[in-house]
């Protein structure tokens, strides 16, 4: 199979021929239909993730068609179109049994701890627990965009911080996760203000229905959000993983507000100085979140199938496998609006 392989930090990915993967017990092999290029892949590319051992195939936002089934698989047969979360759980531990697959102690993460989906084929372990049927009405490029950014935003809003209709949602960071949070928040009946430092991303957010936007490059973002919302947001989403955003998000909340940390902190942002006085005096709730359990996919897919949310504007670029390096390098600076998805794996 063809794959894009990382052989050195920040090096261009090499298009190589690798042996086709084979399904293990309980696992399947998928022909990858589409795979997103995510900021988390950039963390792997620059060497900021200690789980990545070179040489390595990145890619964790994928959907595909089952082409081979291992012993013990009962739910899937060749030809099935499926989507997977980026955290592949074991399905048998106490956390999995409780529905908390994202904290499974035996989890495997494509593109990080196991080979990823910047390739024509990918092996998925514990397939009966990790895969969900992909409705025919949802195109592969959009489905791949769901794999990390949309599902993480959905779980943050509905599974962790319980966004309610009529509330004010402040989204700090207008990238893929932030755009997903905007679209989903609007679908859930919230009013949404998006904060970023890139005018093009703010214009994009406004075009997608944001009630307000704030350019944090030329104003105090937290103060601006409090003014727009009449006292502070009910819920703030941090969508980039940097200290400035976290501080701004906490300070933008009204009393008894909630904040959910969606962005992945790495490098200099692993440790942060936070305004704990605001947390204390405002009696704020601070949630962490990472990924989404597979069993929660049907609620999100039903929302999309039913026409209650249009996520198609999220995917702005369909690219070739050989273009992946260019998209990764774009994360060195503020990346262009929208999500890039690999849909051509032959070149």
Automatic annotation (TrEMBL):
> Which cofactor is recorded for it?
Zn(2+)
User: Which superkingdom is the protein from?
Assistant: Bacteria
SMART domains listed in its UniProt record: PKS_ER
- In the UniProt record, does the keyword Cell inner membrane occur? no
* Entry's Gene Ontology molecular function annotations: oxidoreductase activity, acting on the CH-OH group of donors, NAD or NADP as acceptor; zinc ion binding
Q: Which Pfam families match?
A: ADH_N, ADH_zinc_N
InterPro entries assigned to the protein according to its UniProt record, in alphabetical order? ADH-like_C, ADH-like_N, ADH_Zn_CS, ER, GroES-like_sf, NAD(P)-bd_dom_sf, Zn_alcohol_dh
Please verify whether the record's keywords include Zinc: yes
Domain Enoyl reductase (ER) span(s) in chain numbering? 8-342
Which SUPFAM superfamilies does this chain map to? GroES-like, NAD(P)-binding Rossmann-fold domains
Keywords, A to Z, come to: Metal-binding, Oxidoreductase, Zinc
| Gene3D superfamilies referenced in this protein's UniProt entry, alphabetically | Medium-chain alcohol dehydrogenases, catalytic domain
**Similarity remark:** Belongs to the zinc-containing alcohol dehydrogenase family.
Task: Please state what the protein is called.
Answer: Zinc-dependent alcohol dehydrogenase family protein
